[in-house]
Amino acid sequence: MVRIRREGLRLDQAVAEALGVSRARAQAWILEGRVRVGEKVVDKPAYRLKGEEVVVEPKEERPLVVPEDLPLPILYEDDDLLVLNKPPGLLTHPAPGVYTGTVVNALLGRYYEPEAVERPEMVRPGIVHRLDKDTSGVLVVAKHGGALEALSRAFRDRLVMKRYLALTEGHPKEGTLIAPIGRHPVERHKMHVGGVAPRYAETHFQVLATAGPHALVEARPHTGRTHQIRVHLKHLRAPILGDEVYGKKSPVIPRQALHAYELRLPHPRTGRILEFLAPVPADMARAWEALGGAWPEGIALEGV
Predict the structure, then answer these.
(1) Rg, Å, the chain Cα set
(2) What confidence category does residue 62 fall into, taking pLDDT thresholds of 50, 70 and 90?
(3) In what order do the strands lie in the sheet with 40-41?
(4) Residues 140-158: pLDDT tens digits?
(5) Is 78 a catalytic residue?
(6) Active-site residue, from 12, 69, 80, 132
(7) Spatial CB neighbours of 156, under 8 Å, sequence gap ≥ 6
(8) Considering the entire predicted model, what is its pTM?
(9) Sequence-separated contacts (24+) of 247-256 with Cβ below 8 Å
């Protein structure tokens, strides 16, 4: 049983953030009658909280993932959070049919005793935000529930600065793009500007350098929609190099050339602003140079 108190949030959002589970999992618990607001069971995920005490009785489910001894490239660690430099090709969360070799498996292996893993209610690796499988760079993990709540609030309240680097096919228009993103109406694995149930999405773009028809682009997303930078760059007719979902394959890099380069956020306990930087990985550096591009002064490269 978990007790929380929130105000102004949807019930499913509050449960998901507090317990470190997906919104879908939280909604399922609510519909099953496992969540009380005050003394009353509330089965409406969209119920807006007014500061009441919320009691959650999570459904005990045997985890589909197992602890693994996987290397985690760590940029920073303290008692409250862990900051990783996620390599490309590594899933953040397990997905249907893929239950090994993810960041979550590595976290279970590093931080949880075997007896804890046998008790699913105790296993909640605190992934604060996600990176796509083939996107590399800075990834933040909360090490306990209080840190997860504080960091999730910082992301939600836009107190976090995220800076990505991308190589693009074409030169996108610079400036701030506001273009809501929803599910693609036909190809359900894709997102789309407009689309089904679009949500507000805002990204600022700056072209740092060009190499013929290609560009090195800095992207600063001010919202966190699924595939946001990839979708916005496609909308600007400058899809990311190697992005087979929103663009096309590339002979110079076997994945989308997108890297979470820098992150600034308030520490969940002290509020002190922390800044983390993950140098551009070697595959992306080689791709840009193969296109004839030069790296602007001040951009950190892996191994340099």
Answers:
(1) 20
(2) low
(3) 2-10, 48-56, 35-37, 40-41
(4) 999 888 898 899 999 999 9
(5) no
(6) 132
(7) none
(8) 0.77
(9) 247/169, 248/169, 250/287, 252/286, 252/287, 252/290, 252/291, 253/167, 253/283, 253/284, 253/286, 253/287, 254/283, 255/88, 255/89, 255/134, 255/283, 256/132, 256/134, 256/135, 256/230
